[in-house]
Structure formats: structure tokens, C-alpha cells
Design brief:
The chain has 141 residues and is an alpha+beta fold. The protein has a single domain, classed as Zinc finger, CHC2-typedomain (DNA Primase, Chain A). 38% of the residues lie in helices and 19% in strands. β2 and β3 form a beta hairpin. α5 packs across α6. It is globular and about 45 Å long.
Length: 141
């Protein structure tokens, strides 16, 4: 059996179209002008965001969260369990100081930037922009 072609389509057109690989994340960033080495945020700005408590960030992002009053931590007495509603999903998050862990998702991190990335499924730049919009620009400092 031979492959069918549209009239006017050359065999080389088929080969080129089928051999294209999906564009990678790095290539997409370069195309958008966010190449490596270009800094969108200065260190002082990021430090201010990193100093924001996770609970404060959740509230300012408009996410509903609730502490579990019955939770008994096993390792660290400072650990608290909270439930965070994002749309129709509810995340269980274990929080110790600025470090967090999502036991259902099997992922953790440190600080409100990482948690925003995880909960809202954002990349670093968009998570920082979302937090800065709500926290730095006067809604809550």
C-alpha cells in the first residue's frame, strides 16, 4: 500500500512535516525573549517575596485554606496540616515554617513562590508576577 498524498503535495513536504520535533521549553523561552541570563526580577524583590509567610500568600491570592485542628505531627511539633481549595480541587499541605509538602502529590518545596507554582500550575515567572500583584502592590505588604 502506498501513502496517499494531496494533489500538489510533494514527498519531501511529508518528510519535513513528519520529522519536526515539538518545540522544547527552552526554545519557547528564547523565542519569547526570556533567554537565559536575562533577569526579570532583582534579588531584593525576590527576597521580599521569599520573606512572606505561606499562609499570608495563600490568603492574598484569594485561595481558601483551613488548618486541620486534629492533626498530630509525628516528627516536628511545628508542622501543621492545612487544606487549600483551588477551583474545584482541594490540596492537603503539610507546613513547617516556610517548607511545605503535598503528600497526595508527592511534591514539596520551600516558600510561597514554590507553593504558588504547585497549586496554580504556574512557572516561576508567572508565580512571582501573581504574588507581586497581590502582595507587593499594596494589597498586603
Amino acid at each position: 500500500m502506498s501513502a496517499q498524498r494531496d494533489e500538489g503535495e510533494q514527498p519531501s513536504d511529508l518528510l519535513i512535516a513528519s520529522s519536526r520535533k515539538p518545540e522544547g521549553r527552552a526554545a519557547a523561552k528564547r523565542r519569547r525573549g526570556m533567554a537565559r541570563g536575562r533577569r526579570l526580577f532583582d534579588d531584593a524583590f525576590l527576597e521580599r517575596l521569599r520573606d512572606v509567610s505561606v499562609l499570608n500568600a495563600l490568603s492574598c491570592l484569594g485561595l481558601h485554606w483551613k488548618l486541620d485542628p486534629d492533626f498530630q505531627p509525628l516528627k516536628n511539633a511545628k508542622t501543621r496540616r492545612l487544606y487549600v481549595s483551588v477551583g474545584s480541587s482541594v490540596f492537603e499541605v503539610l507546613l513547617t515554617d516556610q517548607k511545605w509538602y503535598d503528600p497526595r502529590g508527592g511534591i514539596g518545596g520551600g516558600g510561597c513562590i514554590d507553593l504558588t507554582m504547585h497549586l496554580l500550575e504556574l512557572d516561576f515567572v508567572h508565580a512571582v508576577k501573581a504574588l507581586s500583584k497581590h502582595l507587593i502592590e499594596g494589597r498586603n505588604t
